[in-house]
Amino acid sequence: MEVINAIGRRKAAVARIYLREGKGDITINQRELENYFPAATLQYIVKQPLELLGVAGNYDIKVNLDGGGTKGQAEALRLAIARALVKINADDKSALRTSGFMTRDARVVERKKPGRPKARKRFQFSKR
Q: Which pTM was predicted?
């Protein structure tokens, strides 16, 4: 099997992955998954598509992660893994889609507006 690459994005995070057959190692920016994401919830988010299809120990994944925070990076990586798994077997797409792993979450932070302290917050109104 050749190397399969895919990309995932979430907020400001971009995950580029290279997936090949192996024994289940996930390497993120030359670090192990457990070292890069110490929180168990973020590790769970990353492994969700692999666990859903039952192929967690079948593929080695090398990841380049850039931008954003930890939660956005984990969700970008989840999307990239799901897209790579669909490239391997197109029949898995419906199962991944029903779980919501194939949809790019387009929500991003709203920009700050001029004359206001934040995007929607206003300065305190003074009548006199």
A: 0.91
